[in-house]
Specification:
This protein is an alpha/beta fold and 174 residues long. The chain has two domains: 8-45, no CATH class; 53-173, no CATH class. It is built from five helices and twelve strands. The strands form three sheets. Strands 3, 4, 5, 6, 7, 8, 10 and 12 form an eight-stranded mixed beta sheet that branches. A two-stranded antiparallel ribbon has the order 1-2. The relative contact order is 0.10.
Length: 174
């Protein structure tokens, strides 16, 4: 019987040895937030082509145009989020004006949402979409104008349910 040879990878101090298959599995199956933590701890988890996500500080959607500002103040203009090759990691402000399925398109393109300021104008958003937008629990300012948040059955969601999704909000403008 042949014995499978496995490479052992060291990790941390004191030195811990793990089979490389374990690290490969961790790298492939880690959530984006966990992948970032792993990259900080061990160089094995760093991606060869750099960070696999586009970190965005501010997003503004108006009509069919998306304006994204990265952490290094670089501005990206796009007619559609589909033209941007990387998934988005949002860490700042999101402003969405009337546009067809703008929130749904943003959620499809996003991998992590740590939004601090959220402004929705002229949007019809489902409660599931709203929960996904506020999932990071970091929203400090929330503004909603001429928009509705509806449940799965089409009913308008009560204000209490909306506020439950905004535990750290200091400013809520309706």
């Amino acid at each position: 019987m042949e014995e499978n040879e496995q490479t052992l990878v060291t990790f941390g101090s004191p030195k811990l040895y793990f089979p490389s298959d374990v690290f490969k599995w961790m790298k492939l199956n880690a959530s984006p937030k966990m992948a970032l933590k792993l990259m900080k701890v061990c160089k094995y988890f760093q991606h060869e082509n750099g960070f696999p996500f586009l970190v965005v500080k501010d997003i503004l959607q108006h009509d069919s145009t998306w304006i994204l500002e990265t952490l290094d103040k670089k501005e990206i203009l796009a007619e559609s989020l589909e033209t941007i090759s990387d998934k988005l990691w949002i860490v700042g402000r999101v402003t969405i004006y009337p546009g067809p399925k703008a929130v749904a398109n943003l959620l499809l393109k996003s991998v992590v949402l740590n939004i601090e300021t959220l402004s929705l104008c002229g949007q019809n958003v489902t409660m599931d979409e709203f929960k996904a937008l506020t999932d990071g629990g970091m929203i400090k300012e929330f503004e909603i104008t001429q928009s509705t948040i509806t449940s799965e059955n089409g009913e308008i969601v009560p204000l209490e349910d909306i506020c439950e999704c905004l535990p750290n909000a200091r400013i809520i403008d309706l």
